[in-house]
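Sample pair:
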Amino acid sequence: QVQVMESGGGLVQAGESLRLSCTTSGLRFSHTAMAWFRQAPGREREGVQCIAWNGETSHYTHHDQGRFTISRNNTKDIVYLQMDNLAPADSAMYYCAAGDSYFCPAPYAFTIWGRGTQVTVPS
């Protein structure tokens, strides 16, 4: 059974940083594109960034404005989202998702999801 698990969320002040982590099991991690999504209360889930098996990245939103960086370690089967200069608008549940191909698909194509980790940035 494939599992995806996020960690690293929390409450931080505006301008601070967080690094989210996503680990997987039951997945050929090094062959799989991985992505981060987020969903704020009352809003639709939106894709943030995706990283292909070889480290190529894709941006699904412009809202991170260069403040977020996705990376992966295929030896440890882990993907990160480094978030810098956080703002209240970044407050959301952040989800990690696994694709079914080497390269980043359209955001709607992800089928394996974690339960999320909450990021809160008070205004």
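The CA atoms of residues 81 and 90 lie 13 Å apart.
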